[in-house]
């Protein structure tokens, strides 16, 4: 489950998510994902992934990415602008590119080769990774102990 912190402590948002999940006993296990700003802030660290998502991996135009993505007040817009810059398109081609911008923002995550630098730099992302690893391990154990297997 995903919920941006939106100025609230991340632990408060985790408790909010967990309370919602507890209210649905038939719901599958959850993993809380609570970025300080927006999930897009977690994608601003990998210039190569942005260029790949823009279908211009050999582009040379500077992307003007923020140094500390969590300090960015509007990471979704920043990521969109970076994708537009990386595409190096003008006129009608840029207009067509912008029509699929939401899909291209998702593609950035698909092109990140290594999340470890983000994990090292961002404690909220590191916690999400740890929680996801633990949930997958629990699921794997449950699946391997299932009598249906």
Describe what this molecule looks like in 3D.
The chain has helices at residues 10-22, 47-53, 75-87, 91-99, 101-111, 116-121, 123-145. It contains seven helices and no strands. The protein is elongated and about 55 Å long. The protein has one domain.
Task: Give the end-to-end Cα distance, rounded to a whole number of Å.
Answer: 28 Å
Structural class, from helix and strand content? Answer: mainly alpha
- Counting copies of identical and different chains, the oligomeric state is single chain
**Residue fraction in strands:** under 5%
Major sheet attributes: none
Principal-axes shape call? elongated
- Number of DSSP strand runs: 0
**Overall average residue pLDDT:** 84
Map the helices and strands.
Layout: H1 10-22, H2 47-53, H3 75-87, H4 91-99, H5 101-111, H6 116-121, H7 123-145
Helix pairs in contact: 2-5, 3-5
Keywords:
149 residues, mainly alpha, 7 helices, 55% helix
Quick take:
This protein starts with 9 loop residues before the first helix and ends with a helix.
């Amino acid at each position: 489950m995903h919920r941006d912190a939106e100025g609230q402590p991340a632990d408060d948002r985790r408790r909010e998510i967990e309370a919602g999940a507890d209210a649905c006993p038939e719901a599958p296990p959850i993993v809380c994902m609570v970025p300080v700003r927006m999930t897009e802030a977690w994608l601003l660290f990998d210039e190569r992934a942005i260029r790949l998502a823009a279908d211009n991996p050999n582009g040379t135009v500077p992307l003007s990415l923020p140094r500390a993505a969590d300090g960015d007040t509007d990471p979704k817009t920043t990521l969109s602008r970076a994708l537009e810059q990386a595409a190096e398109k003008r006129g009608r081609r840029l207009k067509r590119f912008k029509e699929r911008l939401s899909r291209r923002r998702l593609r950035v995550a698909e092109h990140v080769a290594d999340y470890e630098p983000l994990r090292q730099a961002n404690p909220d992302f590191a916690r999400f990774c740890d929680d996801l690893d633990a949930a997958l391990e629990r699921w794997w154990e449950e699946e391997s102990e299932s009598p249906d297997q």
